[in-house]
Amino acid sequence: MIRYKFNGASATELTPKSLQSAPVFILQVIQMRALSLFAETRWSWLLLAVSALVLDLVALYFQHVMLLEPCVKCIHERVAMFGIMFAGIIGLLNPKSIYLRIAGYGLWLYSAIEGLRIAISHVKLQFPSDNPFFDSCGMDPEFPSWAPLDYWLPEIFMPRGMCDEVQWEFLGYTMPQWLVVCFSVYIAIWLAVIASRLFSARKP
Q: Does 78 qualify as catalytic in the annotation?
């Protein structure tokens, strides 16, 4: 028989206070179990991949339709977003496979953390706090020799703008500031999914 404790009270010593918190606890259990089960479906991984793809398509719209030239940081952020998309594709192949899920979770977290780190550094370049003459970036994306993305797909990965230039704002926030929000949300969702998986795997 499964036993749960509400505010430290066992099933045999429930108090009015613990009974009041019981519905909230039960709702939390249901939500965690539902999220854990959803993480094993193809829909969850498809949603992850599609959301990242949409954000990259928006970036390409800014570049090729609105003619906003991407900088080196923009390209690196774009690569991080593609990493999240590929993480979704990995999980989509077989969400029941623990090995593919681990690979997908790993790439998802790594890409989101790297994207967040790059976006934060990009924001610092746009709003320098120290000597502005040293706050700049070059034009070389420095891709590894075994994956020169800027030569393979220059229309997507070739930087042509400057990192410290503010070309677009929405609700008072620049593009890298919104990317800080996006990557933070991806990390928060990853933490929620992993927490739900650990909660479901815990034996009562």
A: yes
In the residue annotation, 74 being an active-site residue is answered as: yes
Report the distance separating Cα 91 and Cα 102, nearest Å.
8
Catalytic residue among 117, 160, 163, 202: 163
Which of 74, 101, 182, 197 is an active site residue?
74
**H or E element that contains 85:** helix 72-93
Q: Is 137 a catalytic residue?
A: yes
pTM for the whole structure: 0.78
101, 137, 182, 197: which is the annotated catalytic residue?
137
Could you list the pLDDT tens digit for every one of the 204 residues in the chain?
444 444 444 444 445 554 445 455 444 555 556 666 667 788 889 999 999 999 999 999 999 998 888 899 999 999 999 999 999 999 999 888 889 989 999 999 999 999 999 999 989 888 876 555 555 677 788 888 898 998 899 899 998 888 778 888 788 888 999 999 999 999 999 998 888 877 766 644
**Is-catalytic flag, 182?**
no
4: left (phi over 0), alpha (psi -120 to 50) or beta: beta
